[in-house]
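Quick one - inputs below.
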Amino acid sequence: MSRHLCVWLVRHPSLHGHHQCHTPPFSLQFAQTHLNTSLGVFRQNRNHILHRLLNKNWSRRYYHQEISMLWKHKALQKYMQDLNKEYQTLDRCLQHISVNQGDQRSLNRRHAELAPLVTIYEEIQEAEQAIEELESMCKSLNKQDEKQLQELALEERQTIAQKINMLYSELFQSLVPKEKYDKNDVILEVTSGRTTGGDICQQFTREIFDMYQNYSSYKHWKFELLNYTPADYGGLHHAAARISGDSVYKHLKYEGGIHRVQRIPEVGLSSRMQRIHTGTMSVIVLPQPDEVDVRVDPKDLRIDTFRAKGAGGQHVNTTDSAVRLVHVPTGLVVECQQERSQIKNKEIALRVLRARLYQQTIEKDKCQQQSVRKLQVGTRAQSERIRTYNFTQDRVTDHRIAYEVRDIKEFLCGEKCLDQLIQRLLQSADEEAIIEFLDENLKSAK
Amino acid sequence: MECWGRMLRAFLSGPGRRGATWGSAYSSWQPHRPVPGLLNATELVSHWTAIFEKEGIPEAQESSEYIVAHVLGAKTFQSLRPVLWTQPLTPWQLQCIQELSSCRLQRMPVQYILGEWDFQGLSLKMAPPVFIPRPETEELVEWVLEEVAPRPHAVGAQGGPLILEVGCGSGAISLSLLNQLPQSRVIAVDKGEASICLTRENAQRLRLQDRIWIVPLDVTSEGSWAHLLSWGPMDLVVSNPPYVFHQDMEQLAPEILSYEDPAALDGGEKGMDIITHILALAPRLLKDSGSIFLEVDPRHPELVGGWLQSRPDLSLHLVAVRKDFCGRPRFLHIRRSGPQRGCPVHAWPGPQPARVPG
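Output:
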């Protein structure tokens, strides 16, 4: 109950230090800074706030609360006011028939973009007004000492405050740009690392690949094997699969990176000595483009297939239908011998090539953004160690969000356990996105 | 050759016989070498690869991989469920692999050993001596699809192009065109009885039998094609005709010489015999500006060009030459130009309205 009182108290610094109020220490500090509404002071303490926000010991309730405090800052208010003004201007502008075709289209688009934001903004303003009225009513009630009404009013205020929190998150969801490729299908590639500890890397690679295969069926996605190259003794050297379905990239994008394993190998000298070895494997997740996204000029492709001496064709009997595609401008090479039909192998190889080229295009996009986020996608992330699977201690740790899971066996089944971790990753990514957005926009707003 | 003899008898005795008869066709052929304590798929592949290599069998590793994968129920070794690579095989599986590998040691083509092969993603039954589709021919089908797809074909009551395939063999070209052009109809002809049966069987396996007419026909015999006119003018003629130069025949590998029908390969002195017959009869069967697509020997584009020039009466001209994936000129697109001669009065047999001539 006291949280919402705190919100109110912050707005009314005159009531600061009221005995009934149980204020957590941070909000006192914030209240101090809030008194001074100059942008400079806010920005000095912004890092402090952001630091607090990133501190994962907090629950989401506090997080929402902090956001609402940030919201109340003038700079952000001003930003929303500007957007609102722009919207109203567009509204008036579009009434005029004299606006020419080309302009009209882009104006319409911008108008449509702003509409939902403005709606939420107006709702928030209405809700805040309601709270103000309740608060003044509360004050008057206090004087008359009508406990029951006061309690009712407090409850009402609580409800409205919660509604405001929801509206804030909605607003931020709308303000922060969406991940461009979230809806895409993916190509998932796994590659075993090297180790001196027997074959733990290869075994581990197979277990991880199986885990993602199970996860795909758990999520009702389609899992299509593109390549499977085993190692000796039942391990996996590298493999690739195409996973298609609903928002596959959104869920799997943070799985890319180096996964580390710590266990006692099952075969070899080390197993007898019961020594723990460390190994790694890498996961690459490539969003799959639609046909139009990546244009591959056939002239840029060199196709290597079985090449008979002499005339070929009817002169030769062959079952070698393996295909190797080389994209000459970038030097990318893709091989496939999954099918008996050569043309099918070529199709599959081309699909993988397009996905890799697409990935390169995405890299270029991402490189332009200077991001300090913990959760990254792309080639920078590929070489980062993201997760450790410790078999001797039966524990999986994701290093980016310091999240620990017990029961590796359950985790490797690739069902609810993995899904929970992925949901947590997505949550964290959202939070980071919002903070980054605020960062950028408060910087630019003068 | 003992294995081949037994197999050939088994296959020739029942032209319409379906199913994998390899289990019953081979009795107790003595194993080439005792197989001591070998257990799993990967080891078996290594074992037989070594044997094939020692005996000079070409594509040793591919052959043994396909045989083992087939016995384990997969099309390719790569696509086999990984767990099966290291699982021990049953004695029955081992015996099957033994028997199939023995046939390979007799230079039987893998496609005949397995009794099936893929073409343009379709699985087709294969049986000696019917010609085995080559990977190059998949490109021929791709080209036809590229040329046909953008152009609408509104013909009488039905949509879709009417295609004639000369020398259908196992039905590879016809069936892959039917599969990818849902509105098309095909007349497939071949002079070999075995080809007619196999194409029919494959059409039924793929449930395409309603749109294909399979007709025994030798295009080189005088006037035999005349009754094709009753089907109406065609949009396309497609063929992978026998195009091997006669003098090159004896240099072909044992896989081909001992098992495939030489009539499906031998094109005469310059490999042009059947090609010229097809080109001579096409104008009578094709619509105005209809097309002919051929697969040929890399030496033929020039020869065909020259021959067409010597026959202006045919109103055919060479539109394009396309290379295969090894960079050899392999495919020809020839177009007919000029008015259609001798329009037939009625169209596709069956419960369709008569086509108005003109």
